[in-house]
Specification:
With 261 residues, the protein is an alpha+beta fold. The chain has helices at residues 11-15, 17-25, 98-101, 141-151, 161-173, 181-184; strands at 33-43, 46-53, 61-68, 77-85, 122-124, 157-159, 196-198, 207-210, 221-223. The structure holds iron/sulfur cluster.
């Protein structure tokens, strides 16, 4: 590699390959230093020389020795020596925050995944517009709202509108929505199924919970226009129903009537 980044390399600094190698060999064993790979100009009178790294496990890495020459000087001084990854070097993947590494289903018993203080999916409990979120048995929410607020009985944080919309979209577009293959061939939608348990609150207009032990979605939220073959009103087609058997030629099931004396 001999391409300069911007400025023309200083002739003295560019020629100081031996000085750069000598400085490098003061820090690392000679067996770890390979061929000269080139140089590049960093600034005026500042040049970096590259040497292959032959250390085991560092394929594609290279030593970078930066030298500089002061104005009106004929000798260079060594600025910096570092080991840098080349294009085909094996390097660690880009660092990802712990939170972004966790995928749904990754949590094991005992794992913690705290939510951010400013998580947009949550708002303080006192901002919840519906007391029924926390007190589903209360029929007249307005009567108890002020008492509940005064005593601070709500949950500290509840779903925000954004959090609710996100969940609704995720559920509706997923395997429990109307576009799932199992719903496409269902005899009827969940909204007419006897196994559907109704929810309360705004999400109840679109979703319910399936309570059919034989269904794939048992215990899961399903959209009202989802469906499956375990629908409570599902009937086998006439041709699939058991056919009546003809009279047996030799009856081995019933008693023979014998004449008695
Ligand atoms: S059994 Fe099937 S149709 Fe009935 S609620 Fe569950 S998923 Fe919906």
């Amino acid at each position: 590699m001999t391409a300069a980044r911007s400025a023309k390399p200083d002739a003295v600094a560019a020629a100081a390959v031996d000085a750069a190698r000598d400085a490098l060999l003061e820090l690392v064993p000679a067996a770890d230093v390979g061929e000269v790979l080139g140089h590049r100009a960093e600034e005026d009178r500042v040049v970096t020389h590259y040497f292959a790294c032959t250390r085991t496990g560092y394929r594609g890495w290279r030593w970078a020795v930066t030298v500089a020459r002061a104005p009106r000087q004929r000798a260079v001084t060594v600025d910096e020596i570092v080991l840098l990854p080349g294009e085909d070097a094996i390097t660690a993947p880009a660092w990802l925050p712990y939170r972004e590494r966790i995928k749904p289903g990754d949590l094991s018993p005992g794992d913690l995944l705290p939510t951010e203080e400013d998580d947009p999916r949550l708002v303080p409990g006192y901002l919840s517009g519906d007391p029924a979120d926390d007190f589903p048995d209360v029929s007249d929410g307005d009567l108890v709202r002020s008492v509940v607020d005064e005593l601070g009985l709500r949950r500290e944080r509840v779903l925000s509108l954004e959090g609710r919309d996100e969940a609704a979209e995720r559920w509706y577009d997923g395997e429990a929505g109307p576009d799932a293959p199992i719903a496409q061939s269902a005899p009827a939608p969940c909204v007419t199924c006897g196994f559907l348990v109704r929810l309360s609150g705004p999400l109840s207009r679109v979703f319910g919970v399936c309570a059919n032990a034989q269904a794939n979605d048992d215990g899961r939220v399903v959209s009202l226009d989802h469906g499956c073959g375990a629908h409570s009103q599902a009937q086998l087609a006439r041709r699939s129903q058991p056919q009546p058997l003809p009279e047996p030629v030799l009856d081995t099931l019933s008693w023979d009537e014998l004449e008695t004396f």
